[in-house]
């Protein structure tokens, strides 16, 4: 980050704390935020054409509060309210789309992706999925891929009608037919691919972790190793040098958890 940019962001953060020289009011219900056009207009074209007062509708004040914090600090907190953090991040994606806030949706999806591995209850994920399909664009494939990443990695238990722990999740699938249709398609595609899985060694130096994925000529796979930190994105031809069944007398250990290379 350039020195000038650091100084500018420090200055914006200071303005956010002090509220000095605020020249724009953002209103939502009985809440009012005194903000600075230099901060919010730099992040969002939505506010550029407004007068000195802009009124928002049908948003949650906790989310708007953190959206404004992001405009000043380039980050926000998803665990500072009574809203489940996963639902909070999905709602942040929704307001980022609604108000054209630069890079905020990507940040929110990144936070959500980290929560996939945190072992939170499935009911929060069910709520997050339902909110996503009600408030965000179907064209936001990155958000949906993140949500499906959680579901598919745990589909066996989530969709088991005899598993009492995930009744909320199964009820959500009945209320959200668009999600259920895509889930069925993805599970069918995964089953087809798993019937022809191959095993590959992590390309990291001295790493003995392996992963399984489906791959064919003309396609590639990206891989991020949680053991050694290696990241790789190779086409089919290059990956063949790492196929375990083509390497003799070299033991491997599978990556813990449901972790597959991702085709692209």
TrEMBL record:
InterPro entries, A to Z: BTB/POZ_dom, SKP1/BTB/POZ_sf
Domain BTB: start-end pairs: 17-84
One Pfam family it belongs to: BTB
Superkingdom of this protein's organism: Eukaryota
Listed PANTHER family: BTB DOMAIN-CONTAINING PROTEIN-RELATED, BTB_POZ DOMAIN PROTEIN
UniProt-recorded name of the protein: BTB domain-containing protein
Species of origin: Elasticomyces elasticus
């Amino acid at each position: 980050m350039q020195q000038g940019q650091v100084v500018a962001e420090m200055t914006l953060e200071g303005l956010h704390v002090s509220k000095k020289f605020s020249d724009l009011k953002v209103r939502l219900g009985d809440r009012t935020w005194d903000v600075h056009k230099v901060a919010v207009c730099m992040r969002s074209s939505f506010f550029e054409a407004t007068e000195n007062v802009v009124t928002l509708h049908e948003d949650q004040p906790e989310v708007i509060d953190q959206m404004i914090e992001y405009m000043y600090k380039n980050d926000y907190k998803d665990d500072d309210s009574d809203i489940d953090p996963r639902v909070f991040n999905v709602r942040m994606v929704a307001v980022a789309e609604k108000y054209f806030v630069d890079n905020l949706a990507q940040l929110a999806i990144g936070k959500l992706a980290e929560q996939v591995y945190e072992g939170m209850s499935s009911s929060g994920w069910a709520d997050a999925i339902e909110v996503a399909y009600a408030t965000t664009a179907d064209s936001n494939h990155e958000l949906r891929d993140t949500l499906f990443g959680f579901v598919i990695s745990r589909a066996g238990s989530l969709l088991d009608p005899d598993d009492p722990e995930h009744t909320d999740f199964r009820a959500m699938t009945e209320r959200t037919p668009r999600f259920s249709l895509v889930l069925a398609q993805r599970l069918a595609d995964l089953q087809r691919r798993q019937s022809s899985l191959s095993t590959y060694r992590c390309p990291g130096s001295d790493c003995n972790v392996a992963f399984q994925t489906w791959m064919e000529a003309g396609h590639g796979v990206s891989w991020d190793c949680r053991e050694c930190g290696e990241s790789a994105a190779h086409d089919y031809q290059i990956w063949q040098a790492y196929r375990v069944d083509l390497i003799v007398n070299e033991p491997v250990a599978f990556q813990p958890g449901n972790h597959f290379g991702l085709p692209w």
